[in-house]
Amino acid sequence: MAEIIRMPRLSDTMEEGNIIGWLKQEGDSVKPGDILAEVETDKATMELESFFSGTLIYIGVKEGPVPVDGIIAIIGDKGDDTKKILAEAESLTEKKPSEEKAEIKPITQTHQQTPPPSVTPIASNQLSSTDDRVKASPLAKSMAKESGIDIGTVTGTGEGGRVTKKDIENYTPAASRNLSNNSINKEQIAIKPDVQYGDIPVSQMRKVIARRLGESKFSAPHFYLTIEINMDNAIAARTSINEDSEVRISFNDFIVKASAASLRQHPMINASWMGDKMTVHEDINIGVAVAVPDGLLVPVINHADRKSLSYINTEVRSLAKKAKEKKLQPAEMTGNTFTISNLGMFDIDEFTAIINPPDACILAVGGIAQKPIVKNGEIVIGNIMKVTLSCDHRIVDGVTGAKFLTTFKGMLENPVKILV
Predict the structure, then answer these.
(1) Residue 18 near residue 139 (C-beta atoms within 8 A)
(2) What CA–CA distance (Å, rounded) separates 346 from 364?
(3) DSSP readout, 7-31?
């Protein structure tokens, strides 16, 4: 019996998937567990696995975007009438669109960036003496490009010497192919620039960022509250903690913990606008914005108010690493009730951030700078940090936001309060 393969919904915000390439071709035999294709979603590039045995008798889209639930392939028997199968599938979809199910699922998440079509990569075909071109999956090529690895020097362990994702992950110069000086010339070792000029295709991630933040900015009435915080005591506390601790606590850990403790005292900041109702969340799940090459990901620290500084530090580092490697699971990027965007490490004094739906607020954190302040009637040097709270006025009023910032400021200026 022929099986229809449709584009699955691989993340909660996904509306379409972009097929990068097929690892199986029409006429190939497949069995459960075989990787069929590589699909770019709004958050990662994923390998898609077959659940069926048979022959890949139809590929609907070789490369490019496909809407969720769109037909992308058919697995059946050689000689099956694909036109008849497609007609029946389309008829069934019109009658019962809600009952169709995706028959493939993601098994891994990997690097997302792919070379724009207008960019000509280094001619790796000139690096091989046995093939017209280097055999490699699109995902392996993308990973090699991002890692600065000449894919022509990687020994492939896949079928027919094909370079796979694992070959790139396990690559070491010692395992590279033996290339003599006579087999390559200077023109073939051209250094690709870091910047690619001209038109660049919009990735799925960037499309979703544009759509979601555009909707947030123009549908949620934003207003902004900025406050200065004296970080002298926080600096002293951090120094004291890190003297005898294996975990090196960061200022961002203090900010996450102080935010969580403040949200417990001001629950309306930890809320969401749901159209006909407002939801005040009991759990405090803080999203921490992480910059990645193609945009922004927001891994979530669940139940942040119940976790210690060292636990928050370990979790944030782990999630940030996975975010930069595009290995975050969908569950690790959902459920946020409040978001923090910290640009302090880039010497940004202050900025405003767009609210991350469905949150009511987002906290924009600037850097710590030494400034003259008045203390006990005297002008002294203090370590000042500015933070700006972006608020959705449909949920949060000015006084509510101001009270939250006052509590947040008090906790960082007296860090012992964070532990209470």
Answers:
(1) no
(2) 13
(3) ----STT-SEEEEEEESS-TT-EE-
Nearest to 230 by CA among 413, 24, 9: 413
**DSSP conformational letter for 173:** G
Angle among Cα 94, 85, 62 to the nearest 5 degrees reads 95
Q: What is the DSSP letter of 254?
A: H
CA distances from 406 to 285, 325, 354, 377 (A): 21, 37, 21, 22
Q: Which of 145-154, 366-375, 402-411 has the lowest mean pLDDT?
A: 145-154
pLDDT digits (tens, 9 = 90+) for 167-193: 777 777 654 444 444 444 444 444 455
* Total-model pTM: 0.62
Q: What are the pLDDT digits (tens) for 218-258? A: 889 999 999 999 999 999 999 999 998 888 999 999 999 99
383, containing H or E segment: strand 378-392
What residues have CB less than 8 Å from 132, skipping those under 6 apart? 125
d(CA 308, CA 295): 29
Supply the residues annotated as catalytic: 393
H helical segments located in 220-283: 232-243, 251-265
| Nearest CA among 248, 223, 263 for reference residue 411 | 263
Element housing 403 (H / E):
helix 398-413
Query: Token pair of 115, please?
Result: 């070379």
Beta pairing partners, 147 = none
Contact 55, 76 (CB under 8 A): yes
d(CA 145, CA 124): 12
In the block, tokens 């492939």 appear at 156
Taking each helix axis as running N to C, give the angle between helix 251-265 and helix 232-243, from 0 to 180 degrees, rounded to the nearest 10: 120
How many C-beta atoms lie closer than 10 Å to residue 51's C-beta? Answer: 15
Inter-residue contact 54 to 29 (CB < 8 Å): yes
When computed from its CA atoms, the radius of gyration of the chain, rounded to whole angstroms, is: 26
Q: How many helices (H) and strands (E) does the chain have?
A: 8, 19
Q: Note whether 375 and 382 are within 8 A (CB).
A: yes
Burial of 207: CB neighbours in 10 Å, binned 0-12, 13-18, 19+: middle
Cβ partners under 8 Å of residue 152, min gap 6: 122, 124, 126, 127, 128, 134, 177, 179
